[in-house]
Amino acid sequence: xxxNIYKHPRISREIWHRVxxxxxxxxxxxxxxxxxxxxxxxxxxxxxxxxxSPKRCGEAGWLxxxxxxxxxxxxRVRRIELSAAHITTPAxxxxxxxxxxxxxxxxxxxxxxxxxxxxxxxxxxxxxxxxSAQHRAWTFPMKNVAGNVxxxxxxxxxxxxxxxxxxxxxxxxxEGIDAHSLLLVCEGPTxxxxxxxxGFFAVGRPSCTVGVKLxxxxxxxxxxxxxxxxxxxxxxxxxxxxALASVLCAYARSVRIITPPFSVKDARQWKLNGAxxxxxxxxxDAAPIRKLGIVTRKAVAHAR
Length: 304
Description:
This protein is α+β, with helices and mostly antiparallel strands. The chain has helices at 94-103, 107-117, 121-126, 189-197, 212-222, 235-248, 267-272, 277-286, 297-303, and strands at residues 2-3, 16-18, 35-39, 42-48, 62-65, 130-132, 137-143, 149-156, 161-163, 182-187, 202-205, 226-230, 255-258. β12, α6 (235-248) and β13 form a beta-alpha-beta unit.
């Protein structure tokens, strides 16, 4: 389905397409309601019904202008249901379940996990790590801005990551955070723990393509002076960071993107390779500030 009902000086000749499961919204990641314009492999703009921006397009949603080297379509994820022996759906309050899992953690076992991951016990505890005997997995609560548990990430002994059925994705928010000056946004709870170990205020999102709306709400509530997106070193990680930055620029005073140097995979591996707080701060200082691009009709006419 296509539409050309919305006109904008920068994309006035583009045709708008409905998103789908194969081509989800590059802003919120959902397969319905939203629109995109331009080449399906590299859209120029999106109208998202879920994530707000300064430009409202009537009932269609909010306009987001995208960089040409910005977000690409995420590969379609194949979901595999495990047997009831591994994943069940207890009719439990997720806040209660997360608290019970945290209380069930033995200190000696948690210390071994910390050594295996290369992060501190303190940072894991700040993230509310727990153990679920039912799922035979480590648990990490995913929260909203109010601190309520929306879902629980499971980390199996083989490193595989799942979620407790019945919940939904949220943010990994540590205890004792005061991010009014500098806030790092990481991918996953263990990357978040690594940056906490280095003395930074950090939160995490479950993957490089989700959590945008919750992060907007968090930034609007906490009002950090600087937001630093710590992207994974691979192409999806960098593109996901660009997509997030293009949205947060409308809400944060300063947004930067940093990536681990050379061929380092992610923030946790960066720390394991010997990164210090000074190394991370140097990467932050060297990163350009991302600005919200606004194209006026006068500028477009002059360019022609």
